[in-house]
Design goal:
mainly alpha; 66% helix
């Protein structure tokens, strides 16, 4: 059994890691998926910030 820097247990962990995270079974995430996700998150963040500022400025409306 080959050891990784003198730690034989690490080899077993590395060998079983593929079963845990499905090594190679996920399709690679495209750049457009993450850009769309970031844009949606940014829009929601800006909308929430605007709502909170409006509620702070006009508390009698709430």
């Amino acid at each position: 059994m080959a050891t990784t820097l003198g730690f034989p247990r690490q080899d077993r962990v590395n060998a079983s890691q593929g079963a845990v995270n499905g090594a190679g079974r996920r399709r690679p995430e495209s750049l457009t998926d993450s850009v769309i996700e970031n844009l949606v998150a940014a829009l929601l963040g800006v909308a929430l910030l605007a709502y909170l500022v409006y509620a702070l400025v006009r508390p009698e409306r709430f």
